[in-house]
Each structure stands twice: as structure tokens, then as C-alpha cells.
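Page 47, continued from p. 46.
Same chain as before, 491 aa.
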Amino acid sequence: MSVLPAVNLRRTFLIARRDYLGYIKTWGFWISFLMPFIGMGFGIGFATLDVELSPPRYETILDETGQYADGILALHEDNQSQKVERFIDGLGAVTMTEAQEIDIRETLERDGSAAAKAQIEREVPSLQGQLKSLDSKINFVDPPAETLAGSQEYLKGESLVQVDGKSRPLDGLLYITQTEEGPKADYWSKNINAPDLKNLARDYFENRAEENYLATGNLTPEGLAEAKKGRLEVESFDPTKVSDDTTSQAVTDADKVPYYVAAGLSIFLWLSVFSGAYMLLTSMLEEKLNKLLEMMLASTRFSEIIFGKLLGVAALTLTAMAPYILLAIFAGTAIALKGDSEMTQAFTQSFTPKLLIFFFIFLVLGYIFYGACFIALGALSQSMQDAQTMTTPIVIVLTLCVLVVPLGLATPDSPLLRLASLFPLSAPFAVLVRLPSDPPLWELILSAVLLGLLSLGVVWAAGRVFRYGVLSGSGMSAVTGWFKRTILRQS
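Result:
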């Protein structure tokens, strides 16, 4: 007796073919299929237009001791040279001729990383696109003033530094002084999350401490570990921070709390919009397949059904999220009542009226926009297969939009983040993570207006699609037929 069940290969093949063609004939499948190529096209476009995820930072070193600035710059150049050398060993080794590789290595050793990059760009044009990965996040400029007080106006953005004949903002300044305990380094910048120059200074002073210890000749593992512990810590300062007799301009952990609060609210907004919109899709599809919508239309208008569903699912989403909301309120209240510590005050002060107002505005607009999109797709879908394939592109867009949250934490001054806050699809999430860095109010209002207008347009279009898809029972095949008849003039 056979253990395995009997299988008819022909019937098995017919079932497999039906499922395969059921998915592959849908528009959503082909949109999802083409998404990698569309993403690659955007990537090439960003590279061609020279769009930077993290803008180049123009920073300087004000070394009152005159002993350490050259060493830090030398370490930075050494790091850049190592990046160029790894690039030559990787992509360069399979693209360059042997003579080119030898010549570029000699240029790197003799003239530095900038000259080697220029030579690669000149002699190996096929590698120009990949050279962006070698760009340094730090562009060093000469100190604009001889004192820290004189540099404050540049750090605040009131004055600009000149770089290659162009005016640029001074993004950061490393201020080095000598104390009785040894050298002291402070980092001044409006972007309190920028770590690159701070890390470079830490690495330099750690290497210096190890070299000094090794030079003594009394080498022990314990001594080396102790020398590493004595590395210099670089303290951060914010030139725009208001100071008085009780507070300084030093950046503390409490100053970073608003950024984490904004990021948490942005992710909560994303979860609310995504879960609500998906429930709208399943509700619409279930009622369409069960012929319930036709019965509702006997006594109800299209607009009433659409807005009723939006309100109903919005209430359902809030109910589903209620445990998390209540826990967050309870935790926030407990933190606020715990004491008057600096972190507690920073947490409670993070919920500014501006943050709460724009959170509510973009929660409503984002839900209406994406909810109307999912309602339209549900009305056009003939099966769950249709729905899954057609919603995949929107799910991908939503997933890409939430990636602005870590970008906002790391580089709140990124031009891409500013563009994302004006782009309606990503605006609800990008605006929230930008709020702690105090963007111009007109940009926030413009972003809300653009998303509001687009939401109205999507609701109107969803109504038309809803009417067409439900009354005629049409799906994407009917849309394709309409396109051929009306646009392509095919019979």
C-alpha cells in the first residue's frame, strides 16, 4: 500500500496554471514586478541630480594649543586614503588596467585621496557613479575667527564661510584647549546628532594615548587597557541653545529626547494609517464579493458609504490601538509625576502644541488619503488575489516612507528629508521627525495643504472608481478595456 496519495499530473498542472495566471494577469503583479526597476531609476536619477541623503558638512578645527589639529586632519586623510585603497582593490581591480592601477596607487601615496579620486574620475569614466561612496561627510575649512566667541555667528548661521568662492554654512566646530588635566575638546554644532567629527577626534586622542603608552616601554596588557580608558571624551555644545545661570549650551541626553518622541509618534502614525487602510480594503472586498454593497446602494449614496466606511474603520483603528494609547498615556503620566529630573522635564516638554496639532492634522489627512486609495482598490478587486497584488505597490510606498524616521534622527538637516516633507505620500511621517529641529512654519503649512488637496482628489477619484467597480462588477480588466477603447481607440 502506497504511503503517498495518488496524484493526477494533468489536474495538478491545471490547478497550478490557474493560480499562476490568476496572479500574473493582474495589474498589481506587474506594478510590483516593475518596482525594483522603478527604484533603480530613482536611484540613478538621484545620482545624476547629485541628491545627497546626508548633505556635505563644512566643519573646522579651532585649536588654541596648536598641537592637535594637524594630527586630526592627518587621521581623516588616512581614513579617506584607506577607503580609496579598498575601492581600488574591489571595483577598481576589475575595471582598471594594470598600468592605471599602479599609477593611481602612486598618486594616492604621493598626493593623497583627493588627487587619486580625481585621477580615477578622469581616467576611468565607468567608475564615476561609484565614486560617490568615497566622498567624505566632513569638508574641513579654515576657522572663520581666531576665537570661539567670534565663531558663534557662523555656527548660528548668521554669517557664512567662503568655500571655493561659494558661501556655505559652518556646520560644526571642534574647539581644543589645554587644561591642567590635559587637552580638552568641545564640539559646537546646531545638529546635536552629528557624530562624525566627534568620533574622529575621539579616535585621534585614543590613538595618541596608546602611542604615548607604547613609547614608555613598560608594556603590560593592564597598562594598555588603562591607557585606552583615558581617552578624551568630546562634549557637544549647541550654539542656538539659550543659556543662563543654571543651564549651559552643552548638549545633554535630555536635548535628544524630543527627536525620539517625534520619531515614536511618526511610527505610531504609520501603524495607525497602515492598519486602518488595510481594514478598509478587506471590508470593501468582503462586502463586494458577498453582494452586500448592492443592497446598501438601494438606500444609500456612494459618498455616504465611502465616508461611513472611513469613519467606522477610523473608530475601529482607534479602538484597536487603545491599549497602546492608554499604556503610553499611563507611562507618560508616571514619568511626569516621578520627579523634576532633567529627563522628565524634557519628555513632558517634547509634547509641544505644534507637535500635537500637526500630529492630529497629518493623522487625519494620511488616513483619508491612504484609506481612499484602499477603498478604490477594494472596489476594483474581483478576488483576494486581485487585492493582494494591487495593494503591494502601496504597501511598498508606505514602507519606503517610514524610512524617513531614521534619516530624521541622524540628519534632520538633510535636503532629502525636506523634500520628503513636501512630497504628499511621505509628508505625514517626514514632517513629524523634522519638528524638533524647528523647520519654517510655512513649510509645515504648505505640506499640510498639499496633502489636503491630494486627499480631496483621491476621495473624488475613489468615489468614481467605487461607483464604476461596484455597479458594473468591473475589475482591472474592465479598466484595461476602457483604456484600449477610449485612449488607444481599439475596438
